[in-house]
Write the C-alpha cells for this entry.
Amino acid sequence: MKKYLIPALLVLPLLAHADGLPDLGDISQEIISPLKERQIGEQSMFQIRASKSYMDDPEISDYLNQLGGRLVANSPEPSQPFEFFAIDDNAINAFALPGGFVGVNTGLILLAKSESELASVISHEISHVTQHHYARMVSGQRYDSLAALATIAVAILAARNSADASTAAIVGAQAGTIQRQLNFTRTHEKEADRIGLDILEKSGFDSRGMPTFFERMQRATQLVEGNTPSYLRTHPLTHERIADVDDRVQQIPFRLVPDSLDFQLMRARLTARKNTPLEAVAYFQSALGEKKFGNPVAQRYGLVLALLRSNQPQRAAQEFAILHKQAPLNATIETLAGQIKRLDKNDKEIVAFYRTALKNFPQHHALIYDYAEVLLEDRQYKEALKLLDEQVNRDGNDPKLYELQARCYAALGRHQEEHHMLSYVYILHGDLFGAIDQLELAKRAGSDYYQLSTIETELRQYREIAEAYNKKR
C-alpha cells in the first residue's frame, strides 16, 4: 500500500486548543508572518467548509480557481498560494481571508454582466492578501496568541456578510479593540482598488469593468454612506472610491474583451441551480427561443442541467446532442457529456470515453470524480485506486479523493485502508474526533505492520491534540 503522509499535518496544529489555534507566545509589536496569516485563514476555512453555505461544486470551484490563478499570476506576489471558493448565497459579496483564501458569493457572480466585472472584484480581494492588509491592520497591537487574531478574522468575515452577526462576534468575544481595527480597513480599500486595477489590466481584462461593477453593486445593495457604522462595512462602496477608480480607468486605453465560454457556462449553471427545475427549464427555453439574451451554447447547457433536475433524461439527451455539435471542446461540456452517457446503463464505451476526456483535461476535478465513480460502478477497483493515487499525489488535501479511495477499499474488503482513508476525510473537514474514531477502527481491522505503524503514529498525534483541546474546554 502507498504510504500516505498525514494530509492535514500543516493544519492539525490549529485544532490544538479550545480556541482552535496554537498558542505561539506573545506576538505583541510583531508583524504577522505569512505562515501565521495562512494558519488563521485555514482555521476560518474549517468553519466555512463545514457550513451549509459552502458550495461543494467542482465545476464552479475549478472556474474560480482558473480565473483567480490568472489574476494572481499578474499580482505583486504571484507565488502566494491562493484558494478560491464559492458561497451559496444570493447576497452581493466577496471576501478575502488571511493567507490567500478568497470567497465569492453566487449572488455576485450572477450580478456580474461580464467576466471583466467579476475579475475586477476578485483582483480587489487578491490585493488585500498580497498587500497583507490583515497583518498591517493588527500589527503593533498586543495579542497574547493567535487566538485573538482568529477572533478578528471571524469578525471580519461576519462583517462582510451581516452587520448584526459582526456585532455579535465582537461582543461575544469581548474584543472591543476589533471595532477600532476594522476602521483601518477603510484606508486599505483605495490601495486594493489601485493594485487590483493594475492586476486586472495586466491580466488582459477590461479595466472599465471595475467602476461599472462597483456602481451596480452599490445600487444592488443600496449602500448609503453613513447608514451603518464604518467598522461594520469592510468594503464601503463610497462615491469617492468609485470616482477615484473611474478617474484611473480613463487614463487606460479602451479594450474590448469578450467573455470566456466558461464564464457564461458557470452563470448558466448557477441559474439552473437557483430556480426550481420547472422555472429553470422555462427560463432557458425562452432564452433560446427568442434568442434575445445570453450565449446560446451556455443557455442550452443550462437547459440540459434544468431538464436533468426536472427528471426529463430523454429530453436532456436530445438537447445535449444539439449542444455537443455547437460547442467547442470544453472540460465542463465534456463532463456533462459523460453524465449524459451514464444515463444509458448499457453504454459499453463509457470507460473509454472518460479515459480520453481525462487525457484532454487531466486536472478537471469534476471529470476526475466522475471517472472514479464510473470505474467503481464497473468494479474496476484497482484501476480506480491507480487514478486516485495519482490525484492524491497531486493534491493531498482533497477530501473527495480520500472518500472515493475509501469506497474502493471497502469494495475490495480492505477495511483497514478504508477506515484509514476515512480518517483523512474527517480531519480535512475539521472533525478531529471523527478522525480518531476511524483510526481506531482501522487499527482493529487489519494486521499489516507498516500500515499499523502509520496508523499508530497518526492516532498518537491526534490524541495528543484532542487531550490539549479537552483541557482548554
About this structure: Confidence is low (pLDDT under 50) at residues 1-5, 8-29, 159-184, 223-234. Residues 31-249 form one domain.
